[in-house]
Design goal:
CATH architecture: Orthogonal Bundle
Strand content: under 5%
Radius of gyration: 11 Å
Shape: globular
Oligomer: single chain
Number of domains: 1
CATH topology: 434 Repressor (Amino-terminal Domain)
């Protein structure tokens, strides 16, 4: 997954940078910006985003707090 594909997935999922950060276990939305504007997407983040794309929203696990 490229950074552009990551951002496209986030937008398609209707996640704000803050909500996306929470889903991925990051403490700040700035990490999402770093991923979207960087050279690569961390493997775990890519896997989680791909999972969210295929699961119906009602089956998404709760976001960590």
């Amino acid at each position: 997954m490229t950074p552009a594909e990551f951002k496209e997935a986030r937008v398609k999922l209707g996640l704000s940078p803050v909500a996306c950060a929470a889903r991925l276990g990051y403490t700040t939305q700035s990490r999402i910006s770093e991923i979207e504007h960087g050279d690569r997407v961390p493997k775990q983040a890519a896997i989680i985003m791909q999972l969210l794309l295929i699961l119906p929203r009602k089956k998404w696990p709760e976001a960590p707090e």
